[in-house]
Write a structure and sequence with these properties.
- The protein is an all-alpha fold.
- The chain has one domain.
- 63% of the residues lie in helices and 0% in strands.
- It contains 6 helices and no strands.
- Helix 2 packs antiparallel against helix 3, helix 3 runs antiparallel to helix 4 and helix 4 packs antiparallel against helix 6.
- The longest helix has 26 residues.
- The protein is elongated.
Length: 146
């Protein structure tokens, strides 16, 4: 199921926005703080996994082997990231930008799932470029590998 579809369906349902059970949107500062904390955790783990790639096949792995190894941990990690970011209640002023970023992340995940060459972007296009750039534009500077 595409993340964008899940987000669109998640907004449907009974009740109005003034009910006692409605959760208020986060402020921009709180959204950025929480999103950066999520990104920091996810990318700290993937950074450690990336550092292990240099030892793959005794340090003599081909680009194809490196891409396939990275695909095995990056696709699930970024899928978790997308779900966790989608669970945050973005401020109304940024809602469309956040939805666009999540859609780009979801699209990148699908591309990376089908083509390992796009995971690292070293031997082909980088599947997550648009999503990372949109994250950074939102102030999510802990998102992406450095």
């Amino acid at each position: 199921m595409a993340l964008a579809s899940a987000l669109a369906l998640g907004g449907c349902g009974g009740g109005d926005s003034t009910s006692a059970t409605a959760t208020p949107s986060l402020s921009r500062a709180e959204f950025v703080k929480r999103a950066n904390a999520i990104c920091d955790r996810v990318f700290a783990r993937t950074g450690k996994q990336y550092s292990k790639l240099r030892y793959l096949n005794g340090g003599h792995a081909t680009s194809t082997e490196l891409n396939e190894a990275a695909q095995k941990f990056m696709v699930p990690a970024l899928s978790r990231l997308a779900r966790q970011l989608a669970a945050l209640d973005a401020p109304p002023a940024d809602d469309q930008r956040v939805e666009k970023m999540l859609a780009s992340l979801d699209a990148g995940i699908e591309v990376a799932r089908k083509d390992a060459r796009t995971v690292r972007g070293e031997t082909g296009p980088f599947a997550f470029r648009a999503a990372y750039e949109q994250m950074w534009a939102l102030g999510l500077d802990k998102c992406g590998l450095s």
